[in-house]
Amino acid sequence: MNPTTSQIDQRHVQISIGGAVLEGDLDRPPEPVGVVLFAHGSGSGRHSPRNQFVARKLQQRGLATLLIDLLTAEEEIIDARTAHLRFDIGLLAERLVHATDWISDDPDTRELHVGYFGASTGGAAALVAAAYGVDRVGAVVSRGGRPDLAGPLLRRVNAPTLLIVGGNDEPVIALNQEAMASLNCEKRLEIIPGASHLFEESGTLAQVASLAGRWFENYLKLGVAMR
């Protein structure tokens, strides 16, 4: 039975990384089968309606979700002017790794297998973090992502990886196809017909959530608990 909103434990969390403090929202249904850490894309954050929609659908499947702002409020102001930090894949991936460490230490999540859900440039950050996390990441899903920006680290990703792209997002389809060739892990590319880069067309984001939910359910249940 799917958990209701009232059954989901909601916590606002703060994750300290060096001199930065990242804000996040942890939502935990009863007896979760895993936890999915969201890596937001270009100019986005934990309040993104698209990622919140996907997170709710994952929670209904019994998955905990952690949506965090990978940039601080001060960095967001800088990035709004320069659009530089959102493409700093190394910085974003490093913060995802630290957030994964936080998950492994928190009493509510430390026994759960972890997955990454990345969007746009967050897709590349999720794959780079998975390459460094190797044994701690059970699955990766990229929505309209730029996995090509992970470069040679794609070959080091062990986690089963699902790439989801809109059928009308032709340049990104090509980039995802190229990245698929570099991935040595279990992998799949799903193209959703009629969908643009942001999956704003009716029903397309629900298809993303359904594909991601099945992927995470399958691999996080089978994964090795984090150490």
Give a verbal description of the structure:
With 227 residues, the chain is of the alpha/beta class. It has one domain: 3-Layer(aba) Sandwich (Rossmann fold). Helices cover 37% and strands 24% of the residues. The protein contains six helices and eight strands. The chain has helices at residues 49-60, 73-82, 89-105, 121-133, 170-182, 204-222; strands at residues 9-17, 20-28, 34-39, 63-68, 114-119, 137-143, 161-166, 187-192. Strands 1-2-4-3-5-6-7-8 form an eight-stranded mixed β-sheet, sandwiched between helices. The chain is globular. The mean pLDDT is 89.
Identify the notable features of this structure and list them briefly.
227 residues, Rossmann fold, alpha/beta, 8 strands, 6 helices, 8-stranded mixed sheet
The CATH architecture term is 3-Layer(aba) Sandwich
Report the helical percentage: 25-40%
Q: How confident is the prediction overall: mean pLDDT?
A: 89
- Number of helical regions: 6
**What is the N-to-C succession of helices and strands?**
EEEHEHHEHEEHEH
CATH fold-level topology: Rossmann fold
